What does this fold into?
Amino acid sequence: MTRRSTRAYKSLPVEGEKLKQVIEAGRYAPSGGNSQTTHFLVIRDGRVLEELAMLVKQEFSKMEETPGMYKSMANAIRASKGETYVFHYFAPILIVTANQKDYGNNIADCSCALENMMLMANALDLGSCWINQLRWLNENEVILDYMRKLGMADDERVYGALALGYPKTADGLPSRTPLPRNGNPVTLI
It folds into this structure.
C-alpha cells in the first residue's frame, strides 16, 4: 500500500546491487506455465535514453487524438507536440519488458514482472513508474527497429516498461502516502 508512482527523478545512478535486486524480482515473477519468456532490456546509457525519448516523441507527435481514446494515450499524444515531452520522466534507468508476440500470456507475464520490480524498488527506497508508451508503439516500425538494435528479438514486442531511479523529492525517498480508492469495486459471492 505504500508504493506510488514517481514522475521526477534525480540524475543519480542506481547502485549495481540495487538494480540487480530489482531485475531479479522481475525475473522471479510468475509466468504462464512457468514459461519464463519475459525479456528484460535494461537501458542505463543516457545517450540511448535520449535517443529513444526523441523517437517516441517524434512517433507520438505524428498521431492524432480520437474520440473515446484511452486518456493516458491521448495525454501522451498532446504532450508529444510540446517541447518538453520525455516519456520516461528523465529516469536514469528504463527497464523494458518484451515477450513473444504470439504468446498468449505475453502482457500478463510482463505485467507480473513489472509489479514485482516496482515493489522491490519501493523496498529499496527507489522510485519507479510503469511506462506504457513503448507498448502503445509496439507495432511502430521506427520503434521496432530501434528496439531490435538494442537486442529485442524479431518475434518479440514491448508489453511494458519501468522508469527507475532516485526520486527528486526533498528527502530523496518515494512518496508512500496511499491514494484514496475511488474505484476497483469488490463483489463478495
Q: What stands out?
A: The chain is about 35% helix and 15% strand.
